Amino acid sequence: MTGQPMRGEYLSRSAAETREYARRFASGLGPGDVVCLTGQLGAGKTEFMRGIAEVCGCDEQLSSPTFSLMNIYEGVLRGRPVELHHFDLYRLESEKELDAAGFDDYLSGPFLSVVEWGDRFASLDRRYTCRVTLEITGDEQRKIVIS
Ligand SMILES: Nc1ncnc2c1ncn2[C@@H]1O[C@H](COP(=O)(O)OP(=O)(O)O)[C@@H](O)[C@H]1O
Ligand SMILES: [Mg+2]
Fold first, then answer.
1. CA-based torsion, 57, 55, 50, 97: positive or negative
2. What is the full per-residue pLDDT of the chain (147 aa) written as tens digits?
3. Sheet containing 70-77: which strands, arranged edge to edge?
4. Measuring from atom 16 of ligand 1, which residue has the nearest CA?
5. Residues with Cβ within 6 A of ligand 1?
6. Does the domain made of 8-146 have the CATH classification 1.10.3470.10?
7. Residue 25: other Cβ atoms inside 10 A
């Protein structure tokens, strides 16, 4: 955890604007941060993740993790190598599956972790250093709350 991640409420009017907010947000993150990303399907969680990956210079490695539980990208943040851990818990059914996946180990360490559907399992609550909630408020409009 390095800088001060931004907090507050923002209104995005396009996917590009969401990525822009995500880039600003990510510039205050550091290794050890674990970001909980929440919002319904299509809210823009993966778009937001893309902005974070852009800051880490690894957006080209990005693929939607909806079909895989986790992806690991090699990035650079403020001149230092960083492992970006990208999770999508949408398909996980139970805490048991979460344990079996060894999820805990991937969250612990000098990584920058971003967890889509991070609110699905209450046991993870204590692991998060920031929360980002995206809400669909129009066709291309999203409310973004960072806390
Ligand atoms: N303001 C916006 N912010 C983010 N995505 C938007 C916005 N407006 C439209 N979209 C579209 O909504 C979809 C969001 O998809 P995605 O990021 O995969 O959502 P999620 O990961 O939350 O299911 C994309 O097709 C994107 O182009
Ligand atoms: Mg997604």
1. positive
2. 455 678 999 999 999 999 999 999 999 999 999 999 999 999 999 999 999 999 999 988 887 655 678 899 999 999 999 999 999 999 898 988 888 888 888 888 999 999 999 999 999 999 999 999 999 999 999 999 999
3. 8-12, 142-146, 130-136, 34-38, 111-116, 80-88, 70-77
4. 44
5. 12-15, 17-18, 39, 41-47, 116, 140-142
6. no
7. 22
